[in-house]
Amino acid sequence: MILLDSARRRELRAAAHHLHPVVSIAAKGLTEAVLVEIERALQAHELIKVKTAGADRTQREEWMTQICARLQCAPVQHIGNLLVLWRARREEPLCEQLRAPASEAPAASANDKTAQGKSARAFAARARRTARMARAKTLAERSQRRGIKHSSPQH
User: Is the pLDDT of residue 10 over 90?
Assistant: First the structure.
């Protein structure tokens, strides 16, 4: 388990505030398949939220401890039904060691995008860029239909 100082933990809590849960622990509890998914999410995003359902506080704390011990990640926050976890991206993910049986999860190839993953910040920046480009294109098409030509101001 990775231990974080209070300043780093505060930074990670602030960064995790806008994130949505990427993995859920439901009725079957903390299974090997759930651990594999948490490992993949940590490898892809580094900072993740895990949603728990139908468990009391002591059970959620136990799951947090088990996850952190098995995946060598740091517990950032446990608030309500959400667990926030962090681990720096690795060269070699633990997925190979934790892999569920072949019938449950497909084998990952050497050039699997999940292993190379992008951070949540990079994903959000790309989404904003794409939305901006789509808005500009829509405005240009609308202006063209109306016959409005945009020109630079003349001095």
Answer: yes
CA Rg value for the chain = 21
Using DSSP, state whether 18 is helix, strand or coil: coil
20 and 49 Cβ atoms separated by less than 8 Å: yes
Taking phi over 0 as left and psi of -120 to 50 as alpha, with beta for the rest, 82 belongs to beta
Helix axes 32-45, 57-71, angle to 10 degrees: 70
Question: What pLDDT sits at residue 110?
Answer: 46
Please say whether the beta carbons of 108 and 115 come within 8 A. Answer: yes
Considering its fold, how many domains does the chain have in total?
1
Residue at 150 is within a domain: no
Query: Residue 102 belongs to what domain range?
Result: 6-117
